[in-house]
Amino acid sequence: MKDFLKSNYGFSDYQVAQLSHLGKTLLSEFSKLLIMGICFYDILNVYAIAVGILLLLRTSTGGYHCKTYLTCLLSSFLYMLLCIRFLPLILVPSVLRFPLLFLCMITNYCLGPVTSDVHVPLSEERIKKGRLRALIIILLFSIVSSIIPDNKYIPICFWIIMVHTLQLIFAKIRKKGEQT
Fold it and tell me: pTM surpassing 0.85?
């Protein structure tokens, strides 16, 4: 495949390596989503909503990055298990929900994005866009949750945002610790 891309399309070794990395990354991420989807097959719609919210936040502000596939799969599964099955059992009154989400907005804006060590550092423009996007996502969710507070997806999305924010704090502290 490497020779084919180089001879037919004029790709350099670096470009072939980038394509290979992209393919492995997509395969890895898709397999984790599929495995977790099988585990949550009885509530696939809830899982899809949770993944959607998490995907928006992770692509905006990053977060904790595991070193291996297995630790990533296990931590992602535990994250989803907590946010979908257990934490929604803790009912947060609407009057507390907005102040907590406001704290999440501020935290995500100030700390994000936290990128993996293997990625190239982001430009100032990408950092600002990621921060603003996370702030807008959480703000829009806050508005929606105040309009339809009894929707069955609200507690799940609320906990996805809360746990994402907590792991972002952890990731930032860990990254700072590794840099010193």
Answer: yes
